[in-house]
Structures are given as C-alpha cells and as structure tokens.
Amino acid sequence: MILVVKKTAVIVAIILVAVFIVGAVVTTQSVKAANTAAAKKLLPIYGVSTDNNKVAISFDAAWGSDKTEAILDILDKYGVKATFFLVGFWVDKNPDLVKEIASRGHLIGNHSTNHPHFNKLSLDEMRMETETTAEKITALTGEEVKFFRAPFGEYNDTLLTYLNESGVKCIQWTVDTLDWKGISGKEIADRVLKQAKSGSIILCHNNSDHILDALPVILLGLQNKGLDFVRMDELVINDDYYLDNNGIQHPAV
User: To the nearest 10°, the Cα dihedral for 168, 95, 174, 162?
Assistant: First the structure.
C-alpha cells in the first residue's frame, strides 16, 4: 500500500513538472511573439523614455500667424527653445516669420503642404505634400528638415515607411493641450502641468485662442518642476533605439 502511494506521488510530481515546463515554454514563446509583433508594428514617435528631465514643446502652424511673434517673445523670456511644425501655405504667407523662428534658434519641422488627411493619399501624393514644404523651409532657412508631423495626427504604414526610408522622423505627441478647442488658458496649462514628465512631447498651436495666456504658466510651471525645454532634435534618440507599443522611444540595449 505504501509503495503504491509513493509511486502515485512520483507520477503526480512528474506530471506537475511537465506542466510547469510546458507552461514556461508557451509563456516564453508568447512573449517572443508579442515582441516580434511590436517590432514589426510601424508607429510615429509619441515620446521618449528618459530620466534626463527634458521635454519638447511644439507648435503646429497652419491657419493664422498674429500670435507667433508674441509666442517667440515668451519663449525668449523663459530661455526656451521649441519646435514649430509648419504647413506649406503658412510658409508661403509668412516667409519672414519662418526666417525669424529659425534665427531665434528654434527647430522647424514639416506639417505638410495643404494639411490633408494622409490616410486618403497615395504614396505619390504623400511625397508631394512632404517634399514641397521641406524644400520651401530649406530655401528660407538653409536647414534640412528632418522631422514631420502628420495633419490630424493621421498616419499609416505607407507614410511611415516612406518617411523612414527618407531619414525623416514622424512625430506625434505625449500631451495634447487641446488648445485648438478654445478652452481657457488655465485649462490648457493645467492639462500640461498634470501630464508632462521627462521625455514628453507637448502639442500646441501657434494661433489657438488662449495660447498666450497658457504659455507662460506652462513654461514656468514645468521649469519649477525641474524640467528643461529642448528642441525636438535634442530630445528624440537618433540612432540605436526601438519604439514600444505606445510609440515611446527607448535606447537600444
């Protein structure tokens, strides 16, 4: 009787060990499959995983320009460098402002030529929308344009593959100020101060209703939290990185 019990216990133990091994193998394979899927998934850059206390504030410019000079003055007052994503027809209307943005040390990125929905465009149309504006900006500033933000935040694999092959990084955002909704300066600033952290990309618009009220509060508030504002080319990782499923850049290890 004792012998039978011992044999039964041994058999149960063997079965449990086998189940554990199979489970571990399946789990490992599942993790590898998930990582492989993540690696194949094309995403723009939404932010950066970093502990260097740097953030990037950006301004999309498409319609209107009357607040741009004041934005530049506020940025100067707080010693902040920003990134401006410009639409082609805005560049055409404001060539002197384009030059001034660059002369004050800010980075200029591409925001398309006509602000279309890129998910509805062919590859050739995407090329026209991006290359035309990049050429205009370079002609005015002498600087190569290496960053692109898609209108409406819309992208697909065709766009991202084309940009990657062109050496251009597609930039989204970590914090949407929602300034384009006409919310108050306080509401805009509160959103940023609550959400921004090291590695964040902040989305603003150069001609939103209350950006001039919100901007000083944002800049001073985040600086008081120990965060430094840098241009996009000083925040993102240029080489040896990977994107996680949320579009956050991580240094390659």
Answer: -20
CATH no. for 47-251: 3.20.20.370
Q: Assign 121 to helix, strand or coil.
A: coil
The pLDDT tens digits for 133-182 are 999 999 999 999 999 999 999 999 999 999 999 999 999 999 999 999 99
- Report whether 85 contacts 109 (CB < 8 A): yes
Residue among 67, 60, 117 at smallest CA distance from 87: 60
pTM: 0.84
Q: Are 129 and 113 in contact (CB under 8 A)?
A: yes
Cα–Cα distance measured from residue 10 to residue 16, given in angstroms and rounded to the nearest whole number: 10
> Which residues are catalytically annotated?
60, 205
> 203 in helix, strand or coil?
strand
Spans of all domains in the chain: 1-40, 47-251
